[in-house]
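Re: that chain you flagged

S.,

Sorry for the slow reply, it's been a week of failed gels. I finally had a moment to sit down with the sequence you sent. For the record, here it is as I used it:
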Amino acid sequence: MSAPGADTAGNAFAVSATGTYAAGMRAAGTSARGRGCRARLLAVGPLTALVLALLPVGLATAQVSLPAVAIKTAADGAQSYSLTFQILILMTVLTLLPAILLAMTAFTRIIIVLSILRQALGMATTPSNQVLTGLALFLTFFVMSTTLDQSYANGIKPYMDGQIAGEVALDRTLGPLKKFMLAQTRENDLQMFTKLSGKSQFASADDVPLTVLLPTFITSELKTAFQIGFMVFIPFLVIDLVVASVLMSMGMMMLSPVLVSLPFKIMLFVVVDGWTLLIGTLASSFHQ
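Prediction finished late last night. Pasting the C-alpha cells below so you have them in one place:
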C-alpha cells in the first residue's frame, strides 16, 4: 500500500502537468491564429491597393457616363432625349403596360363577357383563366389592329426615325387611341365626369383630356359588357329553371339541378356555334 501523502503529491503533479499542457495548446492556437491573420492581411493588402488604384478610373468613367441622361433643347424649342433617358422611359411604359391595356383598349369588355359566359355555363374553372385571358388579349389586338397601326405610323415610327420630337410623337400616338375611346364612350358618362372634374363643356372631342376620358371610357365599357353578358346569361338561366322544375316535379330534390343542366347547356352552346356567335358579336360591337 502507498502512503496517502504520495497519492496527494501524484495527483497534484498530474493536475499541474495537465494545466501546463492546456496552456501550451492555447498559446500554440493563439500563435497559429496570429500567423493566419497576418497571412490574410498580407494577401488582402495587394488587392486593396489594386482597388484603390482603379478607383479614380471608375470615378472618371462614371463622370463620363452621367451626362448621357440628359434632355437637349434645339433652337426651335424641340427637345431630344439621350439613349439612357429613352431606355428609362421605355422601362416605365413597360411597367404601366397592364394598366394601359385595361384602361385604353377593348380588353375590359371582352374579358368581362367571357367571364360571365363561364359563370352562365356553370363551370367555375373551364375554360381556365389563362385561356380566357389569352383569348381576350388576342381578340383585343384583332379589334384594335387599325388603331394600333395608326398610332405606330403617325407617332412611333417618325420618332424612331428622328423626324419629330418626343412631345409631338406622344400626341400623335395617343390621337388614334383617344378617337377609339371616344367612339365607345356614352355621352351621359362623359358629361358626368366633365361635371365632376369641374370643367366646362369641351368644344370638340380633341379637347377632352385623358384624365376625363379614361374613367369615362372604363365606365362605358363596364356598362356595355354587362349588357352583353345579360343577353348571354338568359338562355342558360332558362335551362336551369326548366331542369330544376322537372326535378322538383319528379321528387328528386336531392339531385343538384346544376349538375343535370350542365350537359344540356354545353350541348346548346355547341349546337348553335356559340363561340363564333359570341366572338363575332364582341368584335362587331366595337364598330357600330
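What I noticed first: The mean pLDDT is 74.

Talk soon,
D.
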